Amino acid sequence: MEKVNIWEIEGTEFPAGRRTRVILGENGAMRGEKFCQGYVVIYKGGGIPATTMRR
Fold first, then answer.
1. DSSP secondary structure of 2-41
2. What pLDDT shows up at residue 35?
3. Which of 1, 2, 3, 29 has its CA 20 to 30 A from that of 53?
4. Which SS3 state, helix, strand or coil, does residue 42 take?
5. What is this structure's pTM?
6. Buried b (16+ CB within 10 A) or exposed e, 2-32
7. What does the radius of gyration of the chain's CA atoms come to, in whole angstroms?
8. What mean pLDDT comes out for the span 26-42?
9. CA 35 to CA 12: how far, in whole Å?
């Protein structure tokens, strides 16, 4: 079993007011295919912008 300390993952800080740490996935601390898992912190006053993707 591979263990990762989430607080040691630098992550990406976005202008919308959040930080995302990818734990498992293509660009994660652990490599993963066909699956992605992460941890997101939304700062006070921050948010997640609406998507323009078609559904």
1. ----GGG---EEETTTEEEEEEESTTSSB--SS--EEEEE
2. 85
3. 29
4. strand
5. 0.70
6. eeeeeeebebeebeeebbebbbbbeebbeee
7. 13
8. 87
9. 19
